[in-house]
Recover the amino acids of this structure.
């Protein structure tokens, strides 16, 4: 389960941010996840409780925002939403597209508690 390693890396990043801002604790963490990120949201949530134990984020809420899958057509140049198993242009139907977004896993925000 690579989600645990991802959460451990996330906790390192969040703790670094919290310490830089002299926070007492972390209230919430917002993650942006695309459908092609290779990460299962439920596995990430399960791993989060393990990875956040004994950290400043131990009681923080993990919020996962699902990001859209978008492609740009190499033929007509239009950008459109796509499905993970159907990366075709919605404008002209061509299959020669380039992925613009949908494979990312981003730390979008961290809400900190100060004293």
């Amino acid at each position: 389960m690579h989600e645990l390693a991802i959460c451990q890396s996330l906790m390192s990043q969040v703790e670094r941010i919290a310490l830089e801002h002299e926070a007492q604790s972390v209230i919430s963490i917002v993650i942006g996840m695309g459908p092609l990120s290779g990460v299962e949201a439920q596995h990430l949530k399960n791993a989060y409780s393990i990875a956040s134990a004994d950290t400043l984020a131990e009681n923080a809420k993990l919020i996962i925002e699902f990001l859209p899958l978008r492609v740009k057509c190499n033929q007509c140049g239009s950008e459109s939403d796509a499905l993970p198993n159907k990366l075709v242009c919605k404008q002209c139907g061509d299959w020669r597209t380039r992925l613009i977004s949908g494979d990312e896993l981003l730390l979008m925000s961290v809400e900190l508690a100060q004293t």
Q: What stands out?
A: The chain has a mean pLDDT of 95. The first strand starts at residue 25 and ends at 33.
